CRISPR-associated endoribonuclease Cas2
Amino acid sequence: MADSQRVLYLAAYDVSDQGRLRAALHCVRAYATGGQKSVHEVWLTAAEKGELLGDMSFILHDDEDSFLLIRLDARQTVHTLGLGVVPVDPDWFYVG
């Protein structure tokens, strides 16, 4: 995979301290294209994935907090529950 190729991930975290929670939210939202509370969709290059994992390991405490980064298949159909609406993806979006 070329370094400039972006891959869709689901980033989720559970943080026990309010200060670290705010820092984790700020960190993940820098990469997020959508999300809710502590779960976000992120499109990452290999370099950005490394940066995000490094930043989160600096923020979080291994014995108290958790962080998951799960690779998703962007070709899958979006399913919503309840009152959700199917997201409309623009032709392009800015990450930076």
